[in-house]
Amino acid sequence: MVRKVRDIGELALIKILGSKIRTDRSVITGIGDDAAAIRFTNGKYLLFKTDMVVEGVHFTRKTPPTLIGRKALARNISDIAAMGGVPRYAVISLGIPASTKINFIKEVYQGIIKLAKEFNINIVGGDTSKSSKVFISIALLGEVGKSALVLRSTARKGDLIFITGKLGNSFKSRKHLKFIPRIKEARFLVRNYKPTAMIDISDGLILDLNHILNASKRGAFIYEEFIPQVKNSSLNRALYNGEDYELLFTLPGVKAARLIKGLKKGKIKIALSCIGEIVDKKYGLILVDKRYRLQSSKARGFTHF
Q1: Burial 26-36 (b: 16+ CB within 10 A, else e)
Q2: What number of CA atoms fall less than 13 Å from residue 61's CA on the CB side?
Q3: 23 φ, ψ to 5°?
Q4: CATH of segment(s) 5-145
Q5: Which residues lie across from 265 on neighbouring strands?
């Protein structure tokens, strides 16, 4: 039997491809995190990220073109934030049908350029190609101080789990098109608390938390009553729908207590919620409901295949 991509899914495909790739000592972390971290200067690492948006998957032709362009860049910026870094330089690859209207392309680029200006990103090149559908692939370079780099693989037993903002209904609210990448929040966190692990929530809280747990070889307990949801969202949407682009991070007890104290006193103006705790790997990921019943949560969320 010939296996196809849909038979194994996106995560298994990435694992297969990654198993064939070897890197040298210049690479601090490669496949398996939000961005690659590469040796750069004595005090900094270079961050390297690429992401794409594809017609029929991430947007439709009814989506405002400026928001299509904006999302294409914003997704990349969000991943740089999850590494604790700052975005700097981008190149854009554009695939378009020959029948595409020039004004559509101009408006897509307006969305990209406007967001790039907000985050001081230089657009330094790219490529174009004929395609049956519109797609935009952006490669983004960033930088991060060596002491500020945050990975998925370094969560520790006893760490508390936090998220920024609220989750759920990202499609209905159009947040998936208009979200603000959490660079400001990430920089505040790495300067003042240095998370042990961090990821952006793009594929859903459960699936993205599982990415941290798998990379760190840990388990977690999360509590339904503490998961912040947007108005009229269901718990399922908050847990599994994705496209929220909030930050999910972990902190050791002492730092977590200091952060919570600052939130209670109103000294910290970021919307943050503590939703659980990192535990031993043997427990897996457990959701504790409002009646304190334990439910094992499988790694389910958005995947492409």
Answers
A1: eebbeeebbbb
A2: 7
A3: -125, 160
A4: 3.30.1330.10
A5: none
Q: What is the pTM for the complete model shown? A: 0.94
112: tokens are: 């990209």
The residue extents of the domains of the chain are 5-145, 160-296
Residue 115 tokens, joined: 């967001």
Q: Is the pLDDT of residue 82 over 60?
A: yes
**How sure is the predictor about 253, in pLDDT bands with cuts at 50, 70 and 90?**
very high
Q: What is the DSSP string of 226-248?
A: G--B-TT--HHHHHHT-----EE
169 dihedral zone (left: phi>0; alpha: psi -120 to 50; beta): left
Q: Is the separation of the CB atoms in 130 and 47 below 8 Å?
A: no
Is the model's pLDDT at 63 over the cut of 80?
A: yes
Quote the Cα angle for 191-197-203, to 5°: 115
Give dist(CA 219, CA 211) in Å, integer.
11
Taking a C-beta distance cutoff of 8 angstroms, is the pair 155, 197 a contact? yes
In this predicted structure, the answer to whether residue 245 has a pLDDT above a threshold of 90 is: yes
Burial 81-93 (b: 16+ CB within 10 A, else e): bbbbbbbbebebb
List the structure tokens of 270. Answer: 């970021």
Report yes or no: 27 and 38 within 8 Å, Cβ to Cβ. Answer: yes
The pLDDT of residue 6: 83
Query: What pLDDT does residue 17 have?
Result: 80
> Is 199's pLDDT higher than 70?
yes
Chain segment 95-107, per-residue pLDDT in tens: 999 999 999 999 9
CATH number at 160-296: 3.90.650.10
For residue 64, give both structure tokens: 């405002």
Is the separation of the CB atoms in 192 and 86 below 8 Å? no
Q: Give CA–CA dist 140/101, Å, rounded.
A: 27
Mean pLDDT over 48-54 rounds to 96
Q: Is the pLDDT at 250 greater than 80, yes or no?
A: yes
38 DSSP β-pair partners? 27, 46
